[in-house]
Amino acid sequence: MLSRERVFKTLKHQEPDIIPWGEHSIDYNIYEDILGRKTFVQAKFRFTKALWEGRRSEIVNSYKKDLIDLVDALEMDMIAAPMMPSIKEEFKPMKKIDEETYQDENENIFRISSVTHDLMPYKMNPKSYTTPTIESIKEEINKIDKEGVPEPDESCWEVIRHIVKEKKSTHFIMTFWNDFAWPSFGQTDEDFYVNLLLHPEMYEPIAELNGKKAIAGLKYVAKQGVDAVITPGDLGSSTGPLADPKIYKKFVLPWHKKYVEEAHRLGLIMIKHCCGYTWDFVEDFVTEGYDAYEGIQASAGMDMKLLKEKVGSRLTLWGGVRNENLIGGKPEDIINDALYAIKWGAPGGGFIYGATHSLAVGTKYENLMAMKQAREKSGVYPISI
User: Fold this and answer.
1) pLDDT at position 179
2) What is the average pLDDT score of the chain?
3) What is the mean pLDDT of residues 191-206?
4) Which residues are 272's β-sheet partners?
5) Do residues 264 and 233 touch, judged by C-beta distance below 8 A?
């Protein structure tokens, strides 16, 4: 059975020959461990620095080759192909303060994370941020109503189009598009959640703006020939909802439903990425019409057995092996995770194998190989664990 057929059969809640495997995100170290060469795919600061140095074409070529080679090497069924920065965009190097610290032209300071290896906000200059108002948001909404949203530059689709051309006949192809979770604003995460508490008058207009912006651009994604869109808006932390679920249900849920309806009208499958504790929202994912829920974080209490019982007949579940164990555990931990997820998630179809978030920086080679082998040994239908 082709990988592509395997995924579609699973999404229909039918049993294929073996559980399909895919990841929405795979960091650069995985590529280098498996392929034995340097890559720019999700290479964090290395990617950013290469853009500053005018090496965009090298980045694009790396993505085109390495995405395909890794999926083939691991025998995965799904490929997540991202948009690329526009060839027309100018990438100004930041001022280097020390080996880990950089400052942009607006005096915002960034530092390279020792955990993710990415350039992350460290100290932001409040003067560089313009606070939205209800009036400014309504102006944006009116503009979208009249003109739609601009189509991304053709060069942004380079990698996606290449992957579709080379692998769509055999594999399931996905990309990412806008998502919107909590209707708030702010320069930092802290500001964002404080403003969510302080400014309830902004909920409705921000939700409308985010919804219309995402919906209006879906037609551009559909033209690229991908099978599915992954929407990455998180709703939960590791211990509970990031904010009051009532806010989400009243203001955001109706727009998510319209978003999914438009995607389906355009022939796109919709996959909701949402890590963290999401028990307050899983029924909403069904109501909104999402085809699959990915990012099932076991360490946040999202138990595969309970999820299968609650929504497994109506929503494809995608996850299984804990990120914490891929990074800090041993192969036996991986096998235990895999067996549990496969035992409870796979019977009857509607289950895609993967990490509980992503294959992230720090994932050990031997643990990834144990993950692969567990699927090959125990993921064959009929499931007999």
Assistant:
1) 87
2) 97
3) 98
4) 231, 293
5) no
* Domain 3-38+72-90+131-378, CATH number (from 3.40.630.30, 3.20.20.210, 3.40.30.10, 3.90.380.10): 3.20.20.210
- Rounded CA-CA distance 332/385 in Å is 16
Quick: pLDDT tens for 27-84. Answer: 999 999 999 999 999 999 999 999 999 999 999 999 999 999 999 999 999 999 999 9
For residue 271, the SS3 value is: strand
Give the N- to C-terminal CA distance of the chain in Å, as an integer: 22
Instruction: Give the separation between CA 141 and CA 369, rounded to whole angstroms.
Output: 49
Spatial strand order in the sheet of 172-176: 78-80, 172-176, 228-231, 269-273, 292-294, 316-321, 351-355
pLDDT in tens, 118-136: 999 999 999 999 999 999 9
Domain boundaries, the chain: 3-38+72-90+131-378
H or E element that contains 321: strand 316-321
Q: Give how far the C-alpha of residue 66 lies from the chain's centroid of Cα atoms, to the nearest Å.
A: 19
Residues in Cβ contact with 259 at an 8 Å cutoff, skipping those fewer than 6 apart: 211, 214, 215, 218, 231, 270, 288
